[in-house]
Specification:
The chain is α+β, with helices and mostly antiparallel strands. The protein has helices at about 20-35, 85-95, 150-165, 180-185, 190-200, 235-245, 290-295, and strands at about 10-20, 35-40, 50-55, 55-65, 75-80, 95-105, 110-115, 120-125, 140-150, 165-170, 175, 210-215, 225-230, 250-255, 260-265, 270-275.
């Protein structure tokens, strides 16, 4: 798959993790996912921002927890936008909350932090020097961002108003579709639709930008949130290694539609999913919503 060189408005483009001890997180993820790390802030800076790379391409980042924020470790999802200020107005108009208004990030871009009407937090990125992840969908990089929400109807209304997303039925599950995204991808990957069709992908899957998990019944006690899934070569081996490195396996490796996956918490508590693409599992029954939401 070609390396990425930017995105279009409404596509998740970056992830980073906020950690009370970023140096410890650098050690954990470097050994777990084979990331090469570089602190891109000046040497005299009081903070740090470690860019993680695979094959020399940017895949994610590790940063300290913001001053004054609760000392919780978590993964943050960013959506590419053409105008962070305009998106802020859309979020307000659609009933979301602006947690941190748009601000510039040292020439790299402009960002803001929001929560949707159900309380799931996400970020937006208006690129300047930093054009998001340049490698995705291969081991060590992000393969999916997933919204877990108790109200799909309300989420559909909000994210459609802000990003133009539509809900797509994918087998027995749901996903977020951005019409025209497949056209954008085929500019640099002309065989994309053919490969997907040959592999048995659902119709319109080339337009999928994120996952959607509907919380219901006894899942109502789970807080709405966005989660991050990293592609790996072997989910079982990654789960075993994560445990050996001080992490915690929340959902042991199991077969899921199109994948074998595990849900893991790093030593400081940030949760993520490790997933191996497994086309032989295309007909496997979906996980329970609670297991998915554990991510």
């Amino acid at each position: 798959m070609p390396d990425r060189d930017g995105y279009i408005n409404g596509v998740p483009c970056w992830v980073d993790t906020s950690q009370p001890d970023p140096d410890a997180a650098v050690e954990f993820y470097g050994r777990l996912l084979g990331w090469e790390m570089q602190n891109v802030l000046p040497v005299d800076s009081p903070g740090s921002y470690f860019i993680a790379r695979v094959r020399g391409g940017d895949v994610a980042a590790i940063a300290p927890t913001a001053e004054g924020a609760p000392p919780n470790a978590e993964w943050n999802s960013y959506v590419w936008v053409d105008d962070a200020d305009e998106t802020t107005a859309k979020v307000r108009g659609a009933g979301g909350q602006v947690l941190v208004g748009p601000f510039d990030v040292s020439g790299a871009g402009r960002m803001a932090v929001f929560s949707d009407p159900q309380g799931a937090t996400f970020r937006v990125w208006q690129a300047a020097l930093h054009a998001g992840a340049t490698i995705v969908n291969e081991p060590g990089s992000v393969v999916f961002n997933v919204l877990h929400t108790p109200d799909v109807g309300a989420a559909r209304s909000f994210y459609n108003s802000v990003f133009g997303w539509e809900v797509l039925q994918v087998g027995s599950g749901l996903a977020w579709r951005l019409p025209g995204y497949g056209d954008f991808l085929e500019r640099t990957d002309p065989d994309l639709r053919k490969r997907m069709a040959d592999g048995g992908a659902p119709e319109l899957f080339e337009d999928v930008v994120a996952g959607l998990n509907a919380l219901s019944g006894d899942e109502q006690d789970l807080a709405p949130h966005w989660s991050v899934t990293f592609a790996v070569e072997d989910a079982d081996a990654i789960a075993e290694l994560a445990s050996a490195l001080g992490g915690r396996v929340i959902v042991p490796p199991l077969d899921a539609p199109w994948s074998r996956m595990a849900v893991i918490a790093d030593p400081q508590g940030a949760r993520f999913t490790a997933s191996r693409f497994a086309p032989e599992n295309r007909d496997v029954e979906p996980l329970s919503e609670r297991a998915l939401a554990a991510a």
